[in-house]
Amino acid sequence: MAGIKQPSDKSHFLLPDLGEGLAEAELISWKVKPGETVKESQTLAEMQTDKALVEVPSPWAGTVSELCGKAGEIIKVGAVLVRYGAAGAPGKQPAPTSGTSSNGTSGAACLSSQVAAGAPGSGEDQGTVVGTMSGTLTVSDRFARRAPEAAAVTRDGKALATPAVRRIARELGIDIQRVPGSGRGGRVTASDVESFAGAGSAAAPAAGGFAPRAATIAPGSVYIDPQGVVQRVPFRGVRRKIAESLDRSVRTTVHFTVVDEADVTALEAKRKEYGRVTGQKLSMLPFIMTAICKALRRHPTLNAITDDANNEILVKGPVNLGCAVDTDNGLMVPVIRDAGARSPVELAAEVKRLAAACKDRTIKREESLGGTFTISNVGSYGGMFATPVINYPEVAILAAGRAKERVMVKDGRFYAGLSLPLSLSCDHRVVDGAEGARFLNTVVGLLENPEQLI
């Protein structure tokens, strides 16, 4: 956890960057109470970052005087998370306000406008922001945001900004070179980017950014029938991240889906034989993964990601294969690095390890990043064909259905065979329909000829 300069007086603790380039995290639960004395490295809170659950430890020993935020709120990196006071001092809970947090619940949040805060009296510029997550923010004059009509700027050199701020700019379709910076030394902050985007500036969207910004649904604009509701489930934790990822994918990529079936009768016999030889009982999944990796070597344009901010398609060499895992908290997609260099036994072992880490929430954030292609095993729950949503910024995803026995025909003869349904979704901006069909045909051919697969 780095990227944030903590105050030297230890009066408050700023939320650090919990992962590479994160701009915010969701507060899941507090592990301490106001007035409680904590030890150094004692867990203060659990935070949700992307699809990983992270424990935030106290950087020093002290007595908690105030918890800044409530469960379900989004806390910005650099915001005050916990305030410390003298031992025995009465603790303070966040005072309720009329504003609402980003998830629709009422509550206050303690925020800080500085990214690198100095100690009081140290002579370093400091400013604080206090308000609700979605309400009006009050700031000191020195750190007030520019007026909405502020003109865009033109820079000769590269804009000063953290990776997290650059990511926000990319997602909003903003050219960060044109955003005026209010931070120290002209650094562009997240607030600068958001103000620039909200002001309707003439800043040109980044080339290749196809997605419009999501429309905000105003309260009361859509009729919601309150009758018969038995449970209200807020978008929080993994479910919120799933919604954000899917929304970004369908707004950005142009989906098309190709479906086919593979006769895996011979592969099923080979799978059982492989299990006897290795002493491990393997499912069909690692063999499908092996077929995907081999097919991607022949069709490399599907082993790619899109960099919409720079109008580029990044074709990758190694296959970093994402595998969708269903958990009690929602869908998670861990990534198997360089899957093409692994045997079916090794793939099966890695899937088992990552699935277990997803289900007990111990998976590391970096193990969910960097995918180049994703497989979803919908067949394990009884499904056949599907229309899977691409795991953006990847350009393709394959859904494998449940293999079923069927009466099949080959060379004019009937026989009882095993048919595996497959569904491939691709980003039509990158992959032509014919190439998607050819890739799926290659996968089918490998599955139907296990001597080529193994």
Query: Compute the gyration radius: what is it?
Result: 26 Å
Shape from CA axes? globular
Run of helices and strands:
EEEEEEEEEEHHHEHHEEEEEEHEEEEHH
Head-to-tail CA distance between termini: 43 Å
The main β sheet shows up as: 7 strands, mixed
Supply the helix-strand structural class. alpha+beta
Helix proportion: 10-25%
Integer average pLDDT: 79
Number of strands: 21
Strand content: 15-25%
Unreliable spans: 95-109, 111-150, 200-214
Count the helices. How many? Answer: 8
Write the layout of secondary structure elements.
Blueprint: E1 12-14, E2 24-30, E3 37-38, E4 43-49, E5 52-57, E6 62-67, E7 74-76, E8 80-85, E9 109-111, E10 129-131, H1 163-172, H2 190-198, H3 237-252, E11 255-263, H4 265-278, H5 285-298, E12 304-307, E13 312-315, E14 321-323, E15 325-327, E16 330-332, E17 335-336, H6 344-359, E18 373-376, E19 396-400, E20 404-410, E21 413-427, H7 433-448, H8 450-453
Parallel strand pairs: 14-18, 18-19
Antiparallel strand pairs: 1-8, 2-4, 2-7, 3-6, 4-5, 6-8, 9-10, 11-21, 12-13, 14-17, 15-16, 19-21, 20-21
Helix pairs in contact: 1-2, 5-6, 5-7
Task: Walk me through this protein's architecture.
This protein has eight helices and 21 strands. Strands 11, 14, 17, 18, 19, 20 and 21 form a seven-stranded mixed β-sheet that branches. A four-stranded antiparallel β-sheet has the order 1-8-6-3, with no helix packed on it. The two termini are 43 Å apart. It is of the alpha+beta class. 22% of the residues lie in helices and 23% in strands.
